C-alpha cells in the first residue's frame, strides 16, 4: 500500500468537464484553451526550425534569443530592465515555473497564502515542498483582497504570497495601489511573492495590467510568471517564463535544472522569431479578446443569466441563480453540459471552503465566433 503524498488530488475538474463535453458532444467552454489555432507565421517558424535541425537541448536557462525577446518586452511594457542572462528563465509552461518557484523557497512547515478561488496547481506544489497553504477568500461579488484579513493571516512562518492577476476564474484585476499596500504590509518580513501573470495581455476596456514587474520594491522578492501558450494561442506548446531578481533566479534554476533541465528547443526558436517579427501581436491581443467577450456577453444579454463583464482573462463568470437556484454549481455545470450542450467550470472547485449559496459557473470565451454564437443561442433558450 502506498501512502499518497497528495491524498486530496484526484482528476481535475478541467479533465472531468472536457471529457463530459466530448462524451455528450457539448460545446466545450470549460477548459481554458482556444478552439482556433495560433498565428500561421508562428507555426511555420516551428516547422522551419524543426527542419533546420534545431532539435537538441537548448541551454538550461532558455534560448538566448528568446530570453532577449522577453527582456525587450518587459522593458517596453513595464519599464523593467531585467537582465536576459541573470533574471529571465524559459520554462516548459507556466505550471512548471510555478512549481519550481515554490520548491525554490518554501520549506517544511512554511505557510503560503493563496487567495480563493485559486488556480489548482499552487497547493500541490506547496504540499510537496512540505509547506501548507493558508487560503484567504477574495471578497464577493468583486473578488478583491481583504486587506485586514491578509494582515491578520501573516505569521513568522509565512514564506510566500501567491498573486494572480488578471485572475482566473473571476477576471478581476489587482490595482497598482493594491501592490503598494502589499509592499507596505510585507516590508521587513521574510516573505516572497509568486505573481502568476499568465493573462497579462488580456486586460480590457482600456485598463492597464498592474504587473509586479513595474513595482521596484515588490519585484525584489518576486517570481513573475507568464505563459507563451496563453499569449500566442498555443496552450499545447506548454512554454512560459519566469522573471525574478538574480538571487531568486539562481535558486529557481537549481530546481528547474532537475525538474526538466530546459524547455523544448524548436518551440523556443519559433517564439523568438515570432516575437521579433510580430510585435503587434501582443498590442492587438486585448482588443481581440475584448471583442470575443463583448460578442458573448451581448448575445447573452437577453438570457436569464446575470454577469458583470470580465475585466481581464478569457473567462466570463455567469450567475445562474435566476434559472436553477436549486442546483449547486457542480450540478449546474453538469446539467448545462448534458441537457443544454454547453460545458463550463463550476467555481466552487477553486475554493478550499466554497461560500454558501455560490451560484457561479465560468465560461471560456477563447472560442471562434460561431462557437460563441451557438453556445449563446443554447444558453438563451433555457
Ligand atoms: C492562472 C493560471 N496559471 C497558470 C496556468 C498554466 O499555464 P501553462 O499552460 O503555461 O502551464 C494557467 C492555465 O490555465 C492559469 O489559468
Describe it:
The structure is a single chain. The chain has 382 residues and is an alpha/beta fold. The chain has 2 domains: 119 residues, Aspartate Aminotransferase, domain 1 (Alpha-Beta Complex); 237 residues, 3-Layer(aba) Sandwich (Aspartate Aminotransferase, domain 2). 41% of the residues lie in helices and 14% in strands. It contains 14 helices and 12 strands. The strands form 3 sheets. Strands 2-8-7-6-5-3-4 form a 7-stranded mixed β-sheet, sandwiched between helices. Strands 9-12-11 form a 3-stranded antiparallel β-sheet. Helix 1 packs parallel to helix 13. The radius of gyration is 20 Å and the shape is globular. It starts with 12 loop residues before the first helix and ends with a helix. The mean pLDDT is 97. Pyridoxal-5'-phosphate binds next to helix 4. Its cofactor is pyridoxal 5'-phosphate. InterPro entries: Aminotransferase_I/II_large (IPR004839), Kynurenine-oxoglutarate_AT (IPR051326), PyrdxlP-dep_Trfase (IPR015424), PyrdxlP-dep_Trfase_major (IPR015421), PyrdxlP-dep_Trfase_small (IPR015422). GO terms for molecular function: kynurenine-oxoglutarate transaminase activity; pyridoxal phosphate binding. It comes from Stutzerimonas degradans. This is Aminotransferase.
Amino acid at each position: 500500500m502506498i501512502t499518497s503524498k497528495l491524498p486530496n488530488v484526484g482528476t481535475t475538474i478541467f479533465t472531468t468537464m472536457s471529457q463530459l463535453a466530448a462524451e455528450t458532444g457539448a460545446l466545450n467552454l470549460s477548459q481554458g484553451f482556444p478552439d482556433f489555432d495560433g498565428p500561421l507565421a508562428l507555426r511555420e517558424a516551428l516547422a522551419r526550425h524543426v527542419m533546420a535541425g534545431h532539435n537538441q537541448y537548448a541551454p538550461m536557462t532558455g534560448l538566448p534569443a528568446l530570453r532577449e525577446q522577453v527582456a525587450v518586452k518587459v522593458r517596453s511594457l513595464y519599464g523593467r530592465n531585467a537582465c536576459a542572462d541573470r533574471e529571465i528563465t524559459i520554462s516548459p509552461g507556466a505550471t512548471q515555473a510555478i512549481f519550481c518557484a515554490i520548491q525554490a523557497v518554501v520549506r517544511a512547515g512554511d505557510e503560503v497564502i493563496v487567495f480563493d478561488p485559486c488556480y489548482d496547481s499552487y497547493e500541490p506544489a506547496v504540499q510537496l515542498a512540505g509547506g501548507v497553504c493558508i487560503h484567504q477568500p477574495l471578497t464577493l461579488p468583486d473578488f478583491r483582497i481583504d486587506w485586514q484579513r491578509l494582515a491578520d493571516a501573516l505569521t513568522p512562518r509565512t514564506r510566500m504570497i501567491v498573486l494572480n492577476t488578471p485572475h482566473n476564474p473571476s477576471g478581476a484585476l489587482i490595482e497598482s495601489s493594491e501592490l503598494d499596500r502589499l509592499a507596505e504590509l510585507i516590508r521587513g518580513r521574510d516573505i516572497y511573492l509568486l505573481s502568476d501573470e499568465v493573462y497579462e495581455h488580456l486586460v480590457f476596456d482600456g485598463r492597464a495590467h498592474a504587473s509586479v514587474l513595474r513595482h521596484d520594491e515588490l519585484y525584489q522578492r518576486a517570481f513573475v510568471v507568464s505563459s507563451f501558450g496563453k499569449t500566442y494561442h498555443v496552450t499545447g506548446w506548454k512554454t512560459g517564463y519566469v522573471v525574478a531578481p538574480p538571487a531568486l533566479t539562481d535558486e529557481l534554476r537549481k530546481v528547474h535544472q532537475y525538474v526538466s533541465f530546459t524547455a523544448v528547443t524548436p518551440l523556443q526558436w519559433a517564439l523568438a522569431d515570432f516575437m521579433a517579427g510580430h510585435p503587434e501581436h501582443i498590442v492587438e491581443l486585448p482588443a481581440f479578446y475584448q471583442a470575443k467577450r463583448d460578442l458573448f456577453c451581448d448575445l447573452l444579454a437577453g438570457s436569464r443569466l446575470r454577469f458583470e463583464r470580465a475585466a481581464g482573462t478569457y473567462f466570463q463568470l455567469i450567475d445562474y441563480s435566476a434559472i436553477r437556484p436549486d442546483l449547486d454549481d457542480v450540478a449546474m455545470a453538469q446539467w448545462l453540459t448534458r441537457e443544454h450542450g454547453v460545458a463550463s467550470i463550476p467555481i466552487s472547485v477553486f475554493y478550499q471552503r466554497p461560500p454558501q449559496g455560490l451560484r457561479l459557473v465560468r465560461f471560456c470565451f477563447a472560442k471562434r465566433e460561431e462557437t460563441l454564437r451557438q453556445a449563446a443561442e443554447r444558453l438563451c433558450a433555457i
